Amino acid sequence: MATLLQCTPLHHSISLIPILNLSLLLSSSFLLLLAISLPSTIRFSEGTSFLHSEILKDEAVARLNELGKVSDAQEFLARTFQSPASVRAGNLIRLWMEDAGLQTWVDQMGNVHGRYEGLNPSEKALLIGSHLDTVIDAGIFDGALGIVTALSALKVLNISGMLGKLRRPVEVIAFSDEEGVRFQSTFLGSAAIAGVLPVSTLHVHDKSGVTVQGALRENSIEITEENLLQLKYDPESVWGYVEVHIEQGPVLETVGLPLGLVKGIAGQTRLRVTVKGSQGHAGTVPMTMRQDPMAAAAELIVLLESLCKQPEDYLSYDGQCTASTVQSLAGSLVCTVGEISTWPSASNVIPGQVTFTVDVRAMDDLGREAIIYELSNRMYRICDKRSVLCLIERKHDANAVVCNPGLSSQLKSATYAALKRISGEDLDDVPILMSGAGHDAMAMSHLTKVAMLFVRCRGGVSHSPAEHVSDNDVWAAGMALLAFLETLA
């Protein structure tokens, strides 16, 4: 039975942004259209030594592999906020920044900065960045690719004598946290720079009880609520933000092209759901008398899956919303339970508490809020029916972002020029994509205009050791960024 679609936001006002439907983007007809209008593959020309392959490809790939070995685990790649490996990675990136001719520093949120002032230090600066942290059991390209390609492009400019001719300052930022693994609060690094990180975040704690502030203090970084606010960049000092990132999807591989421009990024909400019941002996408490939070959590998770697979079966709409909102959810809504824990977690004990995370993403911010509202109401009703307590906490919210048309156009032209230089052929166009994954550009959009470039990844696989970008595609990304930076000279 359909219920009223609640269009009133729970925590903040929402600007509904028109964004291309992801289902259209990934539809077979759309991909066929791209495949017809674009060449099936990029061929790398002979005699391309003038394209700086020794830096943009060979050295960049070597650095990605080197960074991929900096891990807190021996068996897999993992770097979380302010972990020992994260600090080592930051130190390594700082050396590469200096190698490119940049002045470097680490701020009070652990972000690593490298900056060149250019001909006019008083001009607004171009910021380029991505994140140095990873998920657990990660691939080596997510985040790192954007940092390494930026430094490679700037190193080429430095060697060629062009760095000193840049008309405005350029700053590369390796953000300390984007994934949100340790504190379940994403964009710690970029949100601080953008001025949208709540001061209360400093007191959020990880599973060991260490707070964000405490994790920084362990690495000799002292931060208070007052100087967190001081980390925000003055919007009048920033010209724009550009980010290079792996696509984390299959579109570029399908159309046979290494690079694509990003039009927008889906909004996302992260929840932490805690279900509390009555702990008891597994063999002595009758089934009819149990207040089992595990069984309740299982029903809640199945509800989430059902609602997000068929949102139209759960939602109707009122005068504030249109049917297109529900329709767009059917094409772009994705929901995930990525983490679950129990206490006391023993095979012969009915647990007293179960906690799990929920990740909800959609291109339509209003529709995403409607899903959260409906999901929360139905979860509370299930918990009441089962006589257990249910606590739903919103841990992270990010509205959908539309990339700046002007900055994107400049990046697109540079990408086109780079691919033409590499292949020696004329291209019809550079593909335009939407991102279902969140990126630091979402936080930085609160500070300045943003643009993003996606790089093809094999099979569309990411957040996995199987994540892979070919050496030539790393090269293509570096060439595109170099061509973009050359327009500033």
From TrEMBL:
Source taxon at top rank: Eukaryota
Cofactor(s) required for function per UniProt: Mn(2+)
GO molecular function per UniProt: allantoate deiminase activity; metal ion binding
Any one Gene Ontology cellular component term annotated for this protein: endoplasmic reticulum
CDD domains recorded: M20_bAS (cd03884)
Main location as per UniProt: endoplasmic reticulum
Record field: catalytic activity: allantoate + H2O + 2 H(+) = (S)-2-ureidoglycine + NH4(+) + CO2
Pfam family, one: M20_dimer
Domain annotation Peptidase M20 dimerisation: ranges: 267-377
EC number: 3.5.3.9
Entry annotated with the keyword Cytoplasm: no
Compartments reported by the entry: Endoplasmic reticulum
Swiss-Prot/TrEMBL keywords: Endoplasmic reticulum, Hydrolase, Manganese, Membrane, Metal-binding, Purine metabolism, Signal, Transmembrane, Transmembrane helix
Alphabetical list of InterPro entries matching this protein: Amidase_Cbmase, ArgE/DapE_CS, Bact_exopeptidase_dim_dom, Peptidase_M20, Peptidase_M20_dimer
GO annotation terms (biological process): purine nucleobase metabolic process
Bilayer-crossing regions: 12-36
NCBIfam families: hydantase
Quaternary context: Homodimer.
Family listed: Belongs to the peptidase M20A family.
UniProt name for this protein: allantoate deiminase
Organism: Sesamum indicum
Gene name tied to this protein: LOC105175896
